[in-house]
Amino acid sequence: MKDFNYYAPTEVVFGENSEEQVARLIKKYGGTKVLIHYGGQSAMRSGLLPKIYGLLDEGGVAYVSLGGVVPNPRLSLAKEGIELCRKEGVDFILAVGGGSVIDSAKCIAYGACMNEDVWNLYLGKAEAPKTMLPVAAVLTIPAAGSEMSEASVITNEDGDVKLGYSNNRSRPKFAIMNPRRTFTLPPYQTAAGVTDMMMHTMERYFTKDDDMDLTTDLAEAVLRRMKTAVFDVLKNPNDYRQRAQIMWGGSIAHNGLTGCGVQDDWATHQLEHELSGMFDVTHGAGLAAIWPSWARYVMHENLSRFVRFAVNVMDIPNDFSDPKGTAVKGIEAMERFYHAIGMPINIKELIGRDITDAEIKEMTRKCSRNYTHTCGCLKELKAEDMEAIYQKARG
Length: 395
Ligand code: NZQ
Ligand code: ZN
Known about the structure:
There is one protein chain. The protein is α/β, with parallel strands linked by helices. The protein has 2 domains: 11-182, Rossmann fold, CATH 3.40.50; 187-392, Dehydroquinate synthase-like - alpha domain (Dehydroquinate synthase-like, alpha domain, Up-down Bundle). The protein has helices spanning 22-28, 42-45, 48-59, 75-88, 99-111, 119-122, 187-205, 213-235, 240-252, 267-279, 283-298, 303-312, 323-340, 347-351, 357-367, 383-392, and strands at residues 11-14, 33-38, 62-66, 92-97, 135-139, 151-156, 161-166, 174-177. The chain has a 6-stranded parallel sheet, sandwiched between helices. Strands 6-7 form a two-stranded antiparallel ribbon. Helix 10 crosses helix 11 (283-298). Residues 39-43, 71-72, 97-101, 103, 140-141, 143-146, 149, 151-153, 181-182, 184-185, 189, 193, 196, 254, 269, 283 line the site of 5,6-dihydroxy-NADP.
């Protein structure tokens, strides 16, 4: 069994009207001048942002704000945020939104304390920062899990390169989660979010290590619960109980709990980042377009895991005489699930046209960092494997 450290320092404040505690929490974690960072219009339209401004005014917390974060958050806006923090003497960043806003906030929080270009962190060229501004989140879309995770993923428009950087310091101080705030999510974002959180669990589930049974049990419970809850909320977007399952599921799926004692894989994510970097697609949908092809390509590396997934998660009867057949049926069932919730199962369905060989070669080049990096660990994928999976996924 793999030894592990489990570190999940984020204070989770979950439930109806939880945002009302925002000023108290910011003060508790030392914030005196806050950057409120947000996305397009959803948080304004829903009344959440005006409510937060009011609560901070009431609580005597000074703030400035910067909106405009787009899905697949851009480096240029984060750099604007870094300048703003320096100019205004900001000492705390509150992200109001989803993974894109929280990731952009983390990037600003690093950059505001660095003497060099923050992008160097994402390129792996800068030393791990010894300090950064504290970040917290008011979550409006359960998906990325960034509200408890150590990761941030940023897109540099110069070259459409999307890269992640992980550091435990960036785990948010607190995460406010009110499931009612997710009622306004469109079906596509709801489904893409659930796909992403399930994938965060699956990246840790499909591994060579299968001796941490409790971790496996937890992962299967998360997957099964998300798989049913998503249909309930697609049918009734105002179902508080099921929205709550999904909201908490998104955090559990990516706060490390479903990865204790196993070596995680992350190949599907790395392959997907090139899709959202190049085509600006929704991350969760990109994962659905890649996963079936990845799974078919690597399943022989740990067939019994894929059989277990088929039986315990996808409810496929176990045909003991044909483990490969059972494993394939599990992957096919996952494809039917993706379609049932409106997700694509290949790149053509994702981008609405055939991808070209040249585009596949370019994604392969980027994913392998100019043919110098591999990804994944269930099967360590070399550039030729990445290209083969993209080809399989073209549809
Ligand atoms: O911009 P607004 O108007 O707010 O609209 C957003 C956005 O268009 C909308 N939305 C959010 N809350 C809403 C809402 N619409 C209606 N009602 C609400 N309550 O949803 C859209 C998507 O938002 P986004 O923040 O992009 O979604 P998500 O949370 O899925 O984040 C995706 C990003 O997270 C990264 C992905 O790569 C992607 O860039 N990831 C970050 C991770 C991490 N930091 O640990 C891990 C993940 O694997 C993921 O890679
Ligand atoms: Zn993800």
